[in-house]
Amino acid sequence: MGKLDGRVVVITGAARGQGEQEARLFAAEGARVVLGDVLDDQGQELAKELGEDVARYVRLDVRREEDWAAAVAVARDAFGKIDGLVNNAGLLRFNELVNTPLEEFQQVIQVNQVGTFLGIRTLAPEIEAAGGGTIVNTASCTALTGMALVGAYAATKHAILGLTRVAAIELAAKKIRVNAVCPGAVDTPMTNPSTLDPAVDPEESRATVGALCKKLVPLGRIGLPEEVAKLVLFLTGDDSSYITGQPFVIDGGWLAGVSVSVN
């Protein structure tokens, strides 16, 4: 018996990174998954790998109401219901606040904050109709603290925690639990600067981020997307049945304080 047997879960940003690992783990635990993303080739390949009985891919730009409606239609047609949502899609941009163009700030808000709002608003009625279920929003450790050069990102992640708490209160009577995960540095394409600048060598960038994590993170390393997926699984399954409206930090101890070597 899998921990998610019988569940149907929509996962956004599912083509790679944390979303991909969540999709793989959920499928392994018995869920059927609808994979939403704008990376069509990668999303379709993942759905094919997981199998038609388990997964469907749908192009889902989380900023667009019509794309959310299409995702609902795909889930209903393929699996008959929806009783889970993982709002994982996100956008990260590095810039000083005073140098951030308005267009860039609004772009991050549209994907991270508006996308999460539309996911909750669209799928909560579907989850209620299925008899209840869960919503897990991807926030960040920057939702709980400040961090230089990620002002737009941090602002949206703070907002996601607010949405999570309000949704948890409003949806509790409908048997829908809503929680948030707050990852620190995780080894995904989004956190690698080479994704934004082709001139940056991906391996050099990964090594730089790894060295920084060794200094700042008490556990001495960057996190893995598989580790975040396990936390999302816990919040989606029955093991967390009395938990709602909460942020869960998974950051290797980063927020606990500065890690200083005594050697």
List keywords for this structure.
globular, 7 helices, 263 residues, alpha/beta, 14% strand
Description:
With 263 residues, the chain is α/β, with parallel strands linked by helices. The protein has seven helices and seven strands; from the N terminus they run βαβαβαβαβαβααβ. Helix 4 (102-129) links the parallel strand 4 and strand 5. Helix 4 packs parallel to helix 5.
DSSP summary, beta strand count: 7
Instruction: Write the element-wise H/E pattern from the N-terminal end onward.
Output: EHEHEHEHEHEHHE
Low-confidence residue ranges = none
- The radius of gyration over CA amounts to 18 Å
- Count every helix, treating DSSP H or I runs of 4 or more residues as helices: 7
Output the structural class. Answer: alpha/beta
Helix content: 40-55%
Q: What oligomeric state is this?
A: single chain
Spatial strand sequence of the major β-sheet? 3-2-1-4-5-6-7
- Large-scale geometry: globular
Strand content: 5-15%
Mean pLDDT: 95
Kindly report how far apart the N and C termini lie. 48 Å
Largest sheet: 7 strands, parallel
